[in-house]
């Protein structure tokens, strides 16, 4: 069993991260859990922000420099007492979208964002046991409407994540 601590990197400045991570390690943490806040990283559709307090790669590498692993919680819905559950506000303007359901427009947007995050981690070689040891998607989804209907559908849904973990 691993002991984890949750750190929401956008709630602090990058200058604060080393102290927060060090204190987590001193407190016995072996794994840092962090949400990826979609609204922070894509405030405008197709325009990404990974700078300053949103520098996810810098945060992940810093966690690794302390000898800790990371559990990357991509969401897309994170709740975390964050406005709109971490969804970008522009998402509500997508025609036909229904949040947190088995809805094609929602799943297409979600897949695009998740792929962006996975590709970032892949480019930096932060997966496959390096720093990112685990990940999860679809935090707090309404599972009654998100049932996997076939084994191949389930496999296809998970393939993007399983490739890099």
From TrEMBL:
Which reaction does this enzyme catalyse, per its entry? Answer: Hydrolysis of terminal non-reducing beta-D-galactose residues in beta-D-galactosides
A single GO molecular function term of this UniProt record: beta-galactosidase activity
- The superkingdom listed in its UniProt entry is Eukaryota
Q: Where is the Glycoside hydrolase 35 catalytic domain?
A: 1-128
Q: What is its EC number?
A: 3.2.1.23
Family membership: Belongs to the glycosyl hydrolase 35 family.
Q: What is this protein called?
A: beta-galactosidase
- Origin organism is Dipteronia sinensis
């Amino acid at each position: 069993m691993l002991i984890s601590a949750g750190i929401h990197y956008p709630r602090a400045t990058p200058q604060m991260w080393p102290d927060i991570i060090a204190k987590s390690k001193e407190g016995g943490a072996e794994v840092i859990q962090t949400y990826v806040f979609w609204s922070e990283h894509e405030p405008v559709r197709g325009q990404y922000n990974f700078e300053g307090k949103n520098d996810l790669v810098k945060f992940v590498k810093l966690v690794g420099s302390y000898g800790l692993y990371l559990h990357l919680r991509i969401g897309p819905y994170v709740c975390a007492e964050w406005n709109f559950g971490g969804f970008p506000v522009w998402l509500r303007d997508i025609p036909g979208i229904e949040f947190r359901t088995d809805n094609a427009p929602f799943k297409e947007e979600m897949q695009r964002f998740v792929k962006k995050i996975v590709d970032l981690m892949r480019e930096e070689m932060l997966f496959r046991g390096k720093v990112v040891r685990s990940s999860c998607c679809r935090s707090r989804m309404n599972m009654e409407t998100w049932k996997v209907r076939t084994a191949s559908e389930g496999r296809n849904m998970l393939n993007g994540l399983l490739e890099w973990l």
